[in-house]
Structure to design on (262 residues):
């Protein structure tokens, strides 16, 4: 397929981990904001369904298989979306893995699985897309982190460690990219309603919630909708040139009264 001529205002976006939750909501939000979007995840049928809904609503969307833990998969995805949409202007790294564990009973293999997705996955996306952004002198890289970087949550040690590593990587890149026209940004969600954790054994989920309560990490029962994080991403990439939103933390608002609890 021949590469299309690209108007400066045309800003194609790729979203990794776009099959559901934050990633799917972000794809919809960016499409509504006028971005052609490319959705990628291992669950390709779900990405196809979201892309179809975006097109039905008048947007421009494509979907391709993507496993951020596989360098070859990332390279093939980057090539496919470039052929479909032209030069990519926005990259949203959202794919994530979280499994309940206690650090002292976990294995190296369990930690490595988190590293492959939560830390090396973003690095693979950086390798695939960032050099092109720098060469063109414009673009946004947005990484979905977590508030566990600020306050760790028990029983998710591997997740906590890899999200902290991700923020170290991005903060370093922010300094390295200064003056290139490319902005690297972090979104740090608080508790959010997604599919993450829904496949955990019930007893482990109960233990985790009890630990949250024990350490004062569950002050109220509200969770963010995925749309809230999608809105944060859209705000970041829509910021006018000369503005760089480096970090945005989003937390669920507490209910005014106990009767307002869900």
């Amino acid at each position: 397929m021949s590469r299309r001529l690209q108007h400066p205002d045309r800003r194609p976006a790729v979203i990794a981990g776009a099959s559901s939750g934050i990633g799917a909501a972000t794809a919809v939000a960016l499409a509504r904001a006028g971005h052609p979007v490319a959705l990628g995840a291992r669950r390709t049928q779900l990405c196809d369904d979201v892309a179809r809904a975006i097109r039905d609503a008048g947007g421009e969307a494509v979907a391709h298989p993507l496993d951020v833990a596989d360098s070859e998969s990332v390279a093939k995805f980057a090539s496919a979306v470039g052929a479909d949409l032209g030069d990519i202007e926005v990259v949203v790294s959202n794919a994530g893995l979280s499994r309940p564990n206690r650090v002292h009973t976990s294995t190296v293999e369990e930690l490595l699985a988190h590293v492959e997705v939560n830390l090396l996955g973003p690095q693979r996306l950086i390798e695939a897309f960032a050099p092109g952004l720098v060469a063109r002198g414009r673009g946004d890289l947005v990484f979905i982190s977590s508030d566990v970087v600020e306050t760790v949550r028990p029983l998710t040690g591997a997740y906590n460690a890899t999200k902290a590593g991700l923020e170290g990587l991005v903060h370093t890149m922010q300094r390295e990219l200064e003056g290139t026209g490319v902005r690297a940004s972090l979104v740090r969600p608080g508790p959010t309603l997604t599919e993450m954790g829904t496949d955990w054994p019930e007893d482990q989920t109960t233990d985790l919630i009890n630990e949250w309560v024990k350490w004062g990490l569950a002050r109220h029962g509200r969770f963010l909708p995925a749309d809230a994080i999608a809105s944060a991403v859209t705000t970041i990439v829509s910021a006018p040139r000369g503005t760089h939103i480096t970090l945005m933390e989003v937390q669920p608002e507490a209910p005014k009264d106990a009767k307002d609890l869900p």
Observations:
- Residues 1-5 have pLDDT under 50 and may be disordered.
- The two ends are 50 Å apart (CA to CA).
